[in-house]
Design brief:
The chain is an all-alpha fold and 396 residues long. The chain is 63% helix and 0% strand.
């Protein structure tokens, strides 16, 4: 096909090479430092839910793959806890840091799908537009919650972003491995694939390689874990009942955007307005797929991968700003976008801090009743078991 580069590192849109500048690594290091500082301040070993407590206990026990339906998460969690001797929540923190990097890379791939006006002069500030993607991730409260807990969501979100980026750069084999890993982490992640193919703009060869290899590898993992992943005590047949309809899932996705990001979501929405229709439709298909299967439990942020994919459209806001005729208005718009994201990050971290401190107070109350409390529901009983394994119970 004429006008489209075949080099894996070139943008698929056939944009000029001058668009493909080096990434702003120094500025990204600042974003990563901000994330590290926030993760350190917001860190808590107190489980926010029963699933997180169960995963933490399992990783430290003798049956790390008991919940083998999530083996793609449980195996690295077990390695982090037993080999590196790190707290279990570190895996989610690391996944979040890598997600910021991949979001920047995917944001650049999406940015070059909309050609830049060649009459515009190069500008240093414009070269940093790709940072709007990781900054948008940090402005989402769901990001801080997912990266601060012992849960599958941060790792799954990373794998979805990484597979989309691999597809956008025509790395079909890498994308297949990542898709298989995502499927082994959460089998329902496969419903996102049609949307990922559209967002990435993958060619047929890369798409076929990724899907074929991914399915084969995932099938091999399932064969190794048979029959535990299907009919075991925590297999698919024993999964909790679905308590959220697809419509309720879409409403939850909107709340993640409107309430969880607030005005900071304007950068994401503005980017979607100028994105190629095929890419924007792909995000909608991914959200619909998550609503049908991935996000059917009310206690899980199953739409998190879709939200992170949406944040990668934020750099396209640059194209809207560049279209403004008045240079002063363009500068004010740029400053406004950065200010909204800064305020969004502050609000997201403040809200999550309140949730963490509330969980710590609840844990203190729970421990006051001692380590043997009949009548507790499953979530509280498993949280109590973890809390008692971490510290001596107070005197009665």
């Amino acid at each position: 096909m004429s006008g489209v580069s075949t080099h894996p590192n070139e943008p698929l849109s056939g944009s000029p090479a001058k668009e493909h500048r080096s990434l702003p690594w120094r500025s990204f290091a600042g974003v990563l430092g901000l994330y590290a500082l926030g993760s350190w301040y917001l860190h808590s070993s107190i489980p926010l839910d029963g699933d997180g407590a169960a995963y933490a206990l399992q990783a430290a026990g003798d049956v790390p793959l008991e919940r083998s339906v999530h083996a793609g998460y449980l195996l690295p969690l077990w390695l982090v806890v037993t080999t590196l001797h790190w707290p279990p929540e570190v895996l989610s923190v690391l996944a979040g840091g890598l997600a910021l990097l991949v979001a920047m890379l995917l944001g650049r791939q999406l940015l070059v799908t909309v050609p830049r006006d060649g009459r515009l002069p190069p500008g240093g500030a414009r070269d940093h537009a790709v940072l709007l993607a990781p900054l948008s991730l940090l402005a989402a409260q769901a990001t801080w919650k997912s990266t601060g807990t012992v849960e599958i969501h941060a790792l799954l979100g990373l794998l979805v972003l990484a597979s989309t980026w691999a597809l956008s750069t025509r790395r079909g084999v890498l994308a297949g491995v990542l898709l298989a890993w995502a499927g082994a982490t959460q089998p329902a992640a496969w419903v996102l694939v049609p949307g990922l193919l559209l967002i990435s703009g993958a060619d047929r060869r890369s798409a076929a390689t990724a899907c074929g290899l991914g399915l084969v590898l995932h099938a091999g993992v399932l064969a190794l874990l048979w029959p535990e992943w299907w009919s075991g005590g925590r297999g698919l047949l024993q999964s909790a009942a679905l308590d959220r309809s697809p419509w309720e899932s879409l409403q939850a996705a909107w709340r993640l955007l409107a309430r969880g990001m607030g005005p900071a979501a304007l950068a994401l929405l503005a980017g979607l307005l100028v994105a190629p229709r095929r890419r924007a439709v792909g995000l909608g298909i991914a959200a619909a797929g998550a609503a049908l299967l991935l996000d059917r439990h009310s206690d899980n942020p199953g739409q998190l991968p879709t939200l992170w994919l949406g944040c990668c459209f934020a750099p396209l806001t640059l194209r809207w700003i560049e279209s403004l005729v008045d240079e002063r208005l363009a500068r004010l718009s740029s400053a406004g976008v950065v200010l909204l994201l800064a305020l969004g990050i502050a609000e997201a971290t403040t809200r999550h801090d309140a949730d963490v401190r509330g969980a710590e107070r609840d844990a203190e109350v729970l421990l006051q009743g001692g380590c043997s409390q009949p009548g507790l529901d499953w979530a509280d009983s498993i949280r109590l078991e973890l809390l008692c394994s971490q510290s001596e119970p107070p005197a009665r």
